[in-house]
Amino acid sequence: MKLVDTHCHLDNEKFDEDRLEVIERIKENLEFCVNIGYDLASSKKSLELAKEYDFIYAVIGVHPIDIAEYDEEVEKELELLGKNPKVVAIGEIGLDYHWMTEPKEVQQERFKKQLELAEKLNKPVVIHTRDAMEDTVNILKEYPNITGVIHCYPGSLETAKQLVDRFYLGIGGTLTFKNSKKAVEVVKDIPLDRIVIETDCPYLTPEPFRGKRNEPIYVEYVAKKIAEIKEISVEDVTKITTENAKKLYRIG
């Protein structure tokens, strides 16, 4: 069994020069990867990639930083895209109070609209939350039938324990950083069957490549760090997190 990258952005311009080579490395080294949209244009590109390659799946949605574009027309287009079987979730959606491109109330209202779209399409969700964990958790409590993943999980162990009955925690390259004490604590205490591995590439490159462009095959370094923290084999991490990814996105 091979690893999975549950969250990547292959349509990003940083892959324009060698995208085919990056995709070839995914084919050789990973079980599959999931390409994540953040606005309507990237959601369409995500589905195009998924249609072209059987080992790439798509997630569609509007990120809180881009939420100004979300209106009824965009929602209709996303609903149409979401009916394709290669679309495995609605995302990357949520709240971002760090950049605050739109007021909290606007972000919350449109986050709820996309959660309702996920319910309508019977899809899991990929949640982005930054400096907004309390509001994110409270909103998710309003939608008890929604499942999914908290991408690049930024919260405490206590909050993680509240979430893992319905949500997987996405763990990426930041786990390998020297200052990642909170993430290490979460990985140590949360059962492995509630964790999925991601890159968020081209961002958040793990050690030993920090500072360079990230790519999906670097999930290997996240898996090694998880194995080290949990004192288990990389093979066990691979097997369990890949099964988790399939359950999360209902693949296979």
From TrEMBL:
Tagged with keyword RNA-binding: no
GO cellular component, one term: cytosol
PROSITE patterns with a match to the protein in the record: TATD_1 (PS01137), TATD_2 (PS01090), TATD_3 (PS01091)
Keywords carried by this UniProt record: Hydrolase, Metal-binding
Pfam families: TatD_DNase
Chain residues that bind a divalent metal cation 2: 128, 151
Positions bound to a divalent metal cation 1: 7, 9, 92, 200
GO molecular function: DNA nuclease activity; hydrolase activity, acting on ester bonds; metal ion binding
Record-given protein name: Hydrolase, TatD family
